Amino acid sequence: GAVVSQHPSRVICKSGTSVKIECRSLDFQATTMFWYRQFPKQSLMLMATSNEGSKATYEQGVEKDKFLINHASLTLSTLTVTSAHPEDSSFYICSASRGAVAGYTFGSGTRLTVV
Amino acid sequence: AQSVSQHNHHVILSEAASLELGCNYSYGGTVNLFWYVQYPGQHLQLLLKYFSGDPLVKGIKGFEAEFIKSKFSFNLRKPSVQWSDTAEYFCAVTPMDTGRRALTFGSGTRLQVQP
C-alpha cells in the first residue's frame, strides 16, 4: 500500500533556530502534499497545500515566511520552521494525495518542541 | 468554506457495546466524506470513505458509516467494540465541486473501550 515517511518523528530545538521536516512518498508519486498542524486534543488544521514544482498555497493566518514549504519532486516535500519560537511547538503532519479517488496517505507526524 | 462537527469529544464504552459517533458537515455542494482513526502513537489511518453510490459504506475492522444527505451527516458505527478500538477518530470532508483538495477535519472523538 501507499506509504508516506515523515522525518524526524521528534525534534527539540532552541528558540530562534530553524527546523526542517521531510515528507516522502515511498512507493507512489504525490502531485499534491498537505501540511497540517495538530494541537493537543484538537483537530488537524491545514497549514498549506503544496504542488510539485509550484509555490505552496497557505491557509489564512499561516505565515509563509515562517513556514517554508518546498515540493521539489513528486516524492518529497519539506516544511521548514524558521526562527522557531515556543509557540511553534506542536505536532506537524504531512499528507500526500494520490488523486481524488485514491485518497490521502498520512505521515506519522513530527513532534516539535521549541525551548 | 466547509466545516465539520463531531459532537462527541470523549466516549467511554465497555467491550461489546455498540458504537455510534456523530459527524455533521456544513457545505452546500457535493462532498467526499472520510473517517480516519489514529491509534496512540501512530499515524492517521483510513477507516472508510464515501464518494458516491450506496450511502451505507463499510470499512475496515467492522466499521461502517451512513451518509444522510438531508441531515448533512456521516455517522460512524460499529455493532460491538473491542478494547483495541481505543483510539482517536476523525471525520473529514473535501468538496468535489471546487479545486480545493485538502481535507477539513472535525475536532475528533476520543474513544476509550474498557475491558
Any key phrases for this structure?
heterodimer; A: 115 residues; mainly beta; seven-stranded mixed beta sheet; 0% helix; B: 115 residues; six-stranded mixed beta sheet; four-stranded antiparallel beta sheet; globular
Describe the structure.
The complex is a heterodimer of chains A (115) and B (115). By secondary structure, chain A is mainly beta. Chain A has strands spanning 4-7, 10-13, 19-25, 32-38, 44-51, 57-58, 67-73, 76-81, 90-97, 104-106, 110-114. Chain A is globular, with a radius of gyration of 13 Å. Helices cover 0% and strands 51% of the residues of chain B. The interface between A and B is medium-sized, with 23 and 21 residues.
Unreliable residue runs of chain B: none
Helix content of chain B: under 10%
Intertermini distance of chain A: 37 Å
Can you count the beta strands of chain A? Answer: 11
Oligomer: heterodimer
Report the average pLDDT across residues of chain B: 93
What is the tally of beta strands of chain B?
12
Largest sheet of chain B: 6 strands, mixed
Evaluate the radius of gyration of chain B: 14 Å
Report on the biggest sheet of chain A. 7 strands, mixed
Percent range of helical residues of chain A: under 10%
Tell me, briefly, the overall form of chain B: globular
Number of helical stretches of at least 4 residues of chain B: 0
List the secondary-structure elements of chain A in sequence, H or E. EEEEEEEEEEE
Report the end-to-end length of chain B measured between terminal Cα atoms.
Answer: 41 Å
Structural class of chain B: mainly beta
| Spatial extent as radius of gyration of chain A | 13 Å
Low-confidence runs of at least 5 consecutive residues of chain A: none
Largest interface: A-B, 23 and 21 residues
How much of the sequence of chain B is in beta strands? over 45%
